[in-house]
Amino acid sequence: MGNFIKRILYPGFFILVLVIIFSGCTPHSPQPTTVPENTVFMINDSFVPQTITVTPGTKITWVNMDTEVHSVTCQMSNEMEGVFFDSGAIEPGWIYERTFINTGQFHYRCKFQPTGRMTGVVIVQ
């Protein structure tokens, strides 16, 4: 019986342990990530794309892929007196979403960057 255990059961047990360990090691297929259609990325102190054109009722998503805090700040628009919005601080990895109802051109900037350095435009038509 001693030889039987050494020759059959030990190798069988060893193989069973290996099967259990490696059964969870199949190649991982990454799930495709979907990016909303109307997305603006904040990267390298820039809005990409810098200009985006949408129809009324469209939601735009800004994604901060940079290493520092940014904002999406719109002061007065030329076409629509009084339009104003401010995302506040958008930390790295965070998003900001806004739905545009009215037509017009909405010029925005990052209030944490020097004036004119990080700007963008939403055109709603």
TrEMBL record:
Example GO molecular function: electron transfer activity
InterPro entries: BlueCu_1 (IPR000923), Cupredoxin (IPR008972), ET_Amicyanin (IPR052721)
Keywords, ordered alphabetically: Copper, Membrane, Metal-binding, Transmembrane, Transmembrane helix
PROSITE patterns reported for this sequence: PROKAR_LIPOPROTEIN
Record keyword Transmembrane helix present: yes
Transmembrane segments: 7-24
Domain Blue (type 1) copper: 46-125
Domain of life: Bacteria
Coiled coil: none
PANTHER family, A to Z: BLL1555 PROTEIN (PTHR36507:SF1)
Protein name: Plastocyanin
Organism: Atribacter laminatus
